[in-house]
Design brief:
The structure is a homodimer of 350-residue chains. The first copy, chain A, is an alpha/beta fold and 350 residues long. Chain A is built from twelve helices and twelve strands. Chain A folds into three domains: 46 residues, 434 Repressor (Amino-terminal Domain); 133 residues, 3-Layer(aba) Sandwich (Rossmann fold); 131 residues, Response regulator (Rossmann fold), CATH 3.40.50. The interface between A and B is large, with 55 and 55 residues. The structure holds a DNA duplex (16 and 16 nucleotides).
DNA sequence: CTGAAAGCGCTAACAC
DNA sequence: GTGTTAGCGCTTTCAG
């Protein structure tokens, strides 16, 4: 990677000062230079294959034109569409996203945060909000760093928040189950140090309580993973109390775990137990059975958070908004009429 | 985001020259400064919350400590583990990856490439190799840019290549099917302008030809997507010639598409037709039925390509290696004995 | 409309 | 061991 051509090279070839080159090549200042010289300069630039050096520019303007995106794990299928949404907004505006995974570890999160600060990112998108203020989010806020929260909120830290409408999604899921005749419903919630888990489980309890005869039960999973969902469902099935006829996972992964647990216990879905997920992640329709779930506009959440952040950056001041995007229930084959009850195809006596 | 403290601030507080601060804070030059002053400097730095500015450093050293990673689509589950593998190698070495998606469009690819050049990335990882030299890869090579190819090769451009052992994976898949009694095997290949598609389909033909009585047929899908796989399988099923009893997808997505097509035609898997995928992407085990597939070490491919690239960067010269990682056949439930024939539960005459 | 000069924050070469 | 000096490549006053 040999020495690249600089603005001075272009200046020399075009017989102007480098300042003029700078003006000519920047859309915002292009009008300050006569269209003839501008043309000459551009030709020279093209001829030399000139590519401006963003680092040098950033040093001068103290704008890096990058933003840091901190997520738990790219491998979680929730995130790729979010990232694409973010980039979709950033790219045409000349910004670039710097990605960092934390795997949920505080130490890694701190390291990632600092590494992004070294790169002088102009702002952050945090998709890692947790409760308990020791997190990086709190440090960022104290340090006056511009940021927006995506999906999850950080307790008491007033960064803007972009989420799906969790409460309405859960309500739709509960209603769907109730219409199918279910009365004993289990919610396998994500860890309660995540705001989404709290919001969803509260919405779950509220929804169940508001419908006569419906009993909702909440169990907290250790993490938002298939394994944790499976373990939670195993625990429930090991009890010899009353079994739920339906379960709502705090996300699709937990629902998938529940499905695996049921399979290992010889329970069929939806004949024995109906299952609903949350997010409608990729492949949700290809599972066995295709998963009924709440679709969350992940791409749009990315776009919106990027939009919000750039607005803050341009204004130079932190906004305090809250954007809640609509969600929708996608009914597939993992939910069916309760057995022992109202259904036609499954006349039963359980 | 107020003005950050600079090296000069630290120098003033520690009563030394900024050059000394620079030395003290850099592990490679730390020994050049007395441990006492070093300690004092570090204390001052911590006290002020000093974070070095990599843009300034990069301008000086003409190293950005970033590398560009160009992929078709992050949303394709093949890539997230690759990216994590790359970052896993880069991060402890102070490097950061800049990601860009092309969606397979040349124009976007060019734009992404230039935007990364502006950021003065120290090298590239291309996961977009195609045949036909008009691509960015060719331009990069001509411009003496350091890079490595991941998974796919760019025709005649001698960048290092990191792949899985496609040929052995396909051979294992074919053998597995033959052992199950299959004799009419279909390969739904990816587009032939991708080197992986060519390698795999050639391996397929070779494998089939080498076994007496086995007839292999190759059909080229329009893209590496579920939809393309479904369409290809639809086409085959619409013919009234001899039907294959097994199909090998060029990747898991194509296999999944075949599965969908079969379902819509009332064909069962594996009873009517066995299906094998390639990559063992996430959730392959959760499909209906759980997919037999060739596991490719995606994370390691990321790691290895990053290692190769950094080595080139440090050497300052392009290497010419080729790393082929071992793959393994993961047998699940989408493959079974050929119907109408041969197995033990299905007694055989193979 | 264009040129000259200064400086963003840092490191590397050279002094002492 | 530490200070001095000189830029890296760019934008932005300020003159003219």
């Amino acid at each position: 990677m040999n020495r690249r051509t600089t603005i001075d090279d272009v200046a020399k070839l075009a017989n102007v000062h480098k300042a003029t080159v700078s003006r000519a090549l920047n859309t915002l200042t292009e009008h300050q230079v006569s269209s003839e010289t501008a043309k000459r300069i551009k030709r020279a630039a093209r001829q030399l294959g000139y590519v401006p050096n963003v680092m040098a520019r950033g040093l001068r303007t103290s704008l890096s034109m990058t933003i840091g995106v901190i997520i738990p794990d790219l491998t979680n299928p929730f995130f790729p569409p979010v990232i694409r949404g973010i980039e979709n907004f950033l790219q045409p505006r000349g910004y670039t996203a710097l990605l960092a995974n934390t795997d949920g570890h505080d130490a890694i999160e701190v390291a990632a945060f600092e590494s992004l600060l070294e790169r002088r990112v102009d702002g952050f998108i945090f998709a890692t909000g947790r409760h308990g203020d020791q997190t990086v989010v709190a440090r960022a806020f104290e340090a006056n760093v511009l940021a927006v929260m995506l999906n999850r909120e950080a307790e008491s830290i007033p960064y803007p928040l972009v989420t799906g409408n969790d409460a309405s999604g859960i309500a739709a899921a509960v209603n769907h189950l109730v219409e199918l005749g279910h009365r004993e419903i289990l919610h396998i919630a994500g860890p309660f140090n995540l705001s989404t888990s709290v919001v969803r489980s509260e919405a779950f309890t509220t929804s169940c309580d508001s419908i006569r005869g419906v009993r909702g039960r909440v169990i907290e999973a250790a993490s938002l993973s298939i394994e944790a969902g499976q373990r939670s469902m195993d625990d429930v099935l090991a009890e010899n109390g009353m079994r739920p006829t339906a379960v709502i996972g705090g996300n699709d992964l937990l629902a998938l775990g529940a499905l695996r647990s049921m399979k290992s216990h010889g329970l069929r879905c939806p004949e024995d137990v109906s299952v609903i997920g949350f997010n409608d992640m990729i492949f949700a329709e290809d599972f066995a059975p295709p998963l009924t779930t709440v679709r969350v506009p992940t791409f749009d959440m990315g776009t919106e958070s990027a939009r919000l952040l750039l607005r803050s950056i341009e204004a130079g001041v932190q906004e305090q908004v809250r954007i809640t995007l609509p969600v929708s229930l996608i009914v597939r084959s993992s939910t069916g009429p309760v057995s022992g009850g109202s259904a036609v195809d499954f006349p039963t006596s359980l």
